[in-house]
Amino acid sequence: MRFPKTVVLPVIWLLLTNAAHAARIGDLTETSITEQALRFFTFSDPSLRLALLGCILLGLNCGLLGGFVVVRRMSLVGDTLSHAVLPGVALGFLWNHTKDPLAILIGATLVGCLSMLTVSAITRTTRLKEDAAMGLVLSSFYAIGICLIGMIQRLPSGNKSGIDKFLFGQAAAMNGHDITLMAVTSGLTLLFVTFGYRGLLTLSFHRAFGESLGLPMGFLHHAMMLLISFAVVTAMQAVGVVLVSAMLIIPPATACLLTDRLHRVLILSAIIGIATAVFGAFFSFLGSNLPTGPFMVLAGSLVFTMTFLFSPKQGWLTRLWRQQTQKCRIERENTLKAMYHLAERYGFREEGITLLELANTRREPLEQIRQRSDDLIRQKLATLTEDGSMLHFTPEGWRKASAIVRNHRLWELYLTNIMQYGADHVHDDAEKIEHVLGEDTVRQLERRLDFPQTDPHGKAIPGARDIHAAIAKPNLGKPTGY
Amino acid sequence: MNPPALELHDLTVSYAKKPVLYGVDVQVPQGALVGIIGPNGAGKSTMIRAIMGLTPLSGGWVRIFGESFEKNRQRVGYVPQREQVDWDFPVNVMDVVLMGRYGRRGWLRRVTKEDKKIAEESLDKVGMLPFRNRQIANLSGGQQQRVFLARALAQQSDLYLMDEPFAGVDATTERAIMTLLQDLQSQGKTILVVHHDLTTAKEYFDHLLLLNMRLIAFGKTQDAFTVEQLQKTYGGRLTILSDVAAKAAKGEAMP
């Protein structure tokens, strides 16, 4: 995914405009944000109503189609298409020297098709791969478009207003005709995706299989490409030619982090697309009609970043948090195990375990052992005597400690007896495995080992009965030295 | 008399003008379990793809149960190579197997309860029913292969074309797949399997198709699996043919 550009460009633009329109940003103070938000979101202001409607439509359209673009690994195709249609926009404008949405749509679609044909011609006749061909076509067509737009702006005649909005996007510049066209193309997309879902799923997952079934794969593919170019062209006025591909990529990329079924990806992507577009437009409106595109992309990037960090399944911070919790649990279990070993050494007669002994066993400074014992007390696994020197198991703490020791010793026994490891090779492995063995696996191990009493080092294995019999002496053979 | 399950006549396929399959003539009788054997680049996968029209023919024709493929495509099930798809794609096992039903229902129709039942039965036959809601990225290679098999079973076809179903699977899965194929054969289905392992070919299949850019031999395993035929298939006797092919591709004159 190519976020650097979509992030860097808005930042540059912000720097430029902040300098140029510093006075306008001051306008913000005149009305409160809540008032502005009310005016924007309640559809009460007729001029804003169109912009809001347009943003909803474009978010829906780009979100749905973008879902397929991302899962089919065609992100670069979306980017190429969005840049390459610019000459078509200019030609559509030149057709009758006004901003006629239909002429622009037709011009842009034709040039978009031409760009894709050029890409496939290059890949078919040379050794160049698709990425190089697309990079080439993208930049060349875009350069032509920029030149044409520069020419149009210098033309003496005609109504040139609006053509510059195609570069960075201005949602407020959309008129009724633009919105109608947007509604029609979004409606087509919605119908196409709803009724063609199974065909499109097959096309995206496994085109050759779809062809073997006789599904119209070629038709679906080309129809989708056509709809993508419609979406790009109609969204362009609001988002701008440079950043419109971000609307095809960011919402579905975010959705892919959140779910792993295609239909959910599509629905989420449409929702995120709409939210991104609307909030982008709102923030640009707050800043007295700054270009909309960068704000939409920034809103999208923000959503993506939050998802990347906090998504419940794969979020970076979520995973970090999970690892940390796991680490704490393992440390806690190790302290409990050390307490068990000490209790075992004294034949389970001693009343409690002193912190000093525990520090010696775990080879840690007393200060750290105090922290560990505090943690055990917080988790209600142990209690501390009033003078703060001795730890006692709570029933739950005893249960956990015996279970860990049992896991450890069963696993050692399994490795030596069944897997034929040497008795001196198994301790380190068991140190890790003891924390992850589930209750079912433990039962299986016991059955497989025929309910053993002692581990390979001759120590008693606490049985299920000992674990559940609160703090009791396990009635087993004499423990030997460690 | 029954028409052959698959009849190829003078099947010729070229990639970028370079022929990769020359004039293959085969008649596969119904109910045969056929192993397609040949060295790398012999055109085995190409032949499978050409039968289903996934690769354009440059000559010859294909008949499925006496009719064209287009007419009888519902009777053909396809197990492609695993590498053909992106296994990180956001679908679960059931979604993939249900794709096998789209050919019968058409892609505009909704999936019915019956489709789901057939898909579940197919998953059960390959021992993958407990994995029905598993995301496909979390499957092992052998499990992925069995998902593709289940999808083909859900097609409920009479002729199965399988492209290396044994590639990269462990011995247990290989045996399970083989049992499944024999089971299908006993139901009267015809199965063509692209196979790489010469050591098991004789034991697995009752017919063999030896291929190396052209048909070397086709027949009952005991007739086709001979030292002479295998030498022809794997030996270097086709160098002249491939030289000519390379020249033809470059547009040079034939010697």
Blueprint (SSEs and pairs):
The complex is a heterodimer of chains A (482) and B (255).
Chain A (H helix, E strand, L loop, with lengths): L2 H18 L1 H5 L6 H9 L4 H26 L3 H10 L1 H11 L4 H25 L4 H25 L10 H4 L7 H20 L1 H9 L1 H7 L3 H23 L4 H15 L3 H25 L5 H19 L5 H30 L7 E2 H8 L3 H13 L3 E3 L5 E4 L1 H24 L8 H7 L5 H10 L15 H5 L14
Antiparallel strand pairs in A: 1-3, 2-3
Helix pairs in contact in A: 1-16, 4-10, 4-13, 4-14, 4-15, 5-7, 5-8, 5-14, 6-7, 6-8, 7-8, 7-13, 10-13, 11-12, 13-14, 14-15, 14-16, 15-16, 17-18, 17-19, 17-20, 18-19, 20-21, 20-22
Chain B lengths: L5 E10 L2 E11 L4 E5 L6 H8 L7 E6 L4 H4 L3 E4 L13 H13 L7 H13 L15 H14 L4 E5 L7 H16 L3 E5 L3 H7 L2 E6 L1 E7 H4 L2 H8 L4 H12 L5
Parallel strand pairs in B: 3-7, 3-8, 5-6, 6-7
Antiparallel strand pairs in B: 1-2, 1-4, 8-9
Could you characterize the architecture of this molecule?
The complex is a heterodimer of chains A (482) and B (255). Chain A is mostly helical. Chain A has two domains: 31-314, ABC transporter involved in vitamin B12 uptake, BtuC, CATH 1.10.3470; 323-476, Orthogonal Bundle (Arc Repressor Mutant, subunit A). In chain A, 72% of the residues lie in helices and 2% in strands. Chain A contains 23 helices and three strands. Chain A has helices at 3-20, 22-26, 33-41, 46-71, 75-84, 86-96, 101-125, 130-154, 165-168, 176-195, 197-205, 207-213, 217-239, 244-258, 262-286, 292-310, 316-345, 355-362, 366-378, 395-418, 427-433, 439-448, 464-468, and strands at residues 353-354, 382-384, 390-393. Chain A has a three-stranded antiparallel sheet with strand order 1-3-2. In chain A, strand 2 and strand 3 form a beta hairpin. Chain A is elongated and about 100 Å long. The model of chain A is unreliable at 14-29 and 472-482 (pLDDT under 50). The termini of chain B are far apart. Chain B has ten helices and nine strands. The model of chain B has no long low-confidence stretch (mean pLDDT 86). With 255 residues, chain B is an alpha/beta fold. Chain B is 39% helix and 23% strand. Chain B has helices at residues 44-51, 69-72, 93-105, 113-125, 141-154, 171-186, 198-204, 221-224, 227-234, 239-250, and strands spanning 6-15, 18-28, 33-37, 59-64, 76-79, 159-163, 190-194, 207-212, 214-220. In chain B, the strands form two sheets. In chain B, strands 5-6-7-3-8-9 form a six-stranded mixed sheet, with helices on both faces. Chain B is globular, with a radius of gyration of 19 Å. The chains are: A mainly alpha (482), B alpha/beta (255). The interface between A and B is medium-sized, with 27 and 28 residues.
